[in-house]
Design goal:
alpha+beta
Amino acid sequence: MNVSIGIDIGGTNMKTCLVDAQGTVLAEKKIKVATIADAQALACTIYEMSCAMCQEAGSSMEQVGSVGVGCPGTVEIRSGSIHYACNLPFQNVPLRKLFHQYSNLPLYIENDANCAALAEYYAGAGRNSKRFLTVTLGTGIGGGLVGGGFQIRNNPLFPVRDYVFRGETVVYVYAETFFVEVTDVSQTCLYDKIAAEEFLDGLRL
């Protein structure tokens, strides 16, 4: 059985799933992020939840091809590290290196909104689309952009900017993606609109 593991590190929950080559979900787990004490515990929890899902599905870790992790904020995909997670207490975490203390499986990491955009492109609303924007609404707000079948990352069209509203909330728009730290939920639609316009203005240039 050829299976893969997906990990979604959210602002409130960390959700995991085990899928086969056709994308069928074989097992799922969820845990409150607040129960994860530190970076070492994060890697250990990912491993333990992966083992539990394999056991539940009648599979084994030896049958897993790879582990994919989506995390809010900025990540370093080459080293498999979390650089800054906007609403989580994880900064400069060498997640791949820590995970490899428990398993030698390949672990890949990407911004969670970029992961959502890729998922929509391959299996959801973005199929057959040349370019589209995915906006994710959870504990925070994020977005990913796909153009011409490729995910747009590190694009100089999207400079780093800071927006301040009512002196209490800062919206960060990054070169590779965007995320929002929300303290005034009533303004989330406004933030969503501004962030989306940043991406679409870049596409029109």
